[in-house]
Amino acid sequence: MLAVDPATRGRGVGAALVQACLDLARQHGDATLVLSSLPTMHTAHRLYERLGFVRTPERDFEPIPDFPLIAYRRAV
To answer: Residue 19 belongs to what H/E stretch?
Structure first.
């Protein structure tokens, strides 16, 4: 789970966290990173798209009733 304190948003913290995840996935030899997000997190979605992630509806899921998550993926 990635989260950025609202007081520090807009300073590149979210992008740095996503980049750290990409780096870690690469170090582990993973080919792809998939992120799940709440449908209402539009700012996060823009960040993911800016960093090269692609919306992947076939990976969307609902881990508990009434809690949908949408997926994004990117090659590492």
So the answer is: helix 13-27
Question: Per-domain residue ranges for the chain?
Answer: 30-76
Kindly report the number of other CB atoms within 10 A of residue 74's CB atom: 18
The tens-digit pLDDT sequence of the chain (76 residues) is 788 998 998 899 999 999 999 999 999 999 999 999 999 999 999 999 999 999 999 999 999 999 999 999 999 9
CA angle 21, 73, 59 (to 5 degrees): 120
Angle formed by the axes of helices 42-50 and 13-27, to 10°?
50
